[in-house]
Amino acid sequence: MNSSLSADVGFNTEKNTVRLATSSQFNFQDHSNNTNRVTFDSEYTRALSTKWVAAALFSLLRSDQQDLQLRSTYGAGIGRRLIQTDRTSLLAIAGAAYSHETYFPQPGTQPIRNNTEALLGLTFNTFRFRTLSFSSGAFLFSSLSELGRFRFSSQSNWRIELVRNFNWNLQLYENHDTRPPVTAPKNDLGITTSLGWSF
Q: Considering the entire predicted model, what is its pTM?
């Protein structure tokens, strides 16, 4: 049995864009440990010109699947709009990030890690009329504190309006760590579906 809950909100002005999103998934499994996954993501961009933006991000992740009690990530960089129309946007971002990680304790391991990382990212958003929208973000973090360690994070969301702001949602997410500091799965991949209300 599993349950999921998610919410997101966005705010746009001529120069500023703010997006906040959170999600929670809980999986109950017979004869196995229950798993919980909680995320919070925020992004802020400010237009510097018609093509260039300053970008900042902050995210939180808890993943029982990866024995990750909490990871907080702070990032900033410069972005370039590759596509910008009334309905579709594609933004590339390059910058730096700092992450603080707390893992569930294991014998012989250090459960707390701090990382300075180089950051590359792509965000894509599009909608067709009011009935269909799609958003996706993918970020690659290359550790400067532990050379050779890379993290990849992505999340995609499809939303289809069924009737009068009542929506069907599909979410696909992945978090991959090439060198986790504890004995844990490198990958956390999942798909959730839900019904929701937009306003």
A: 0.89
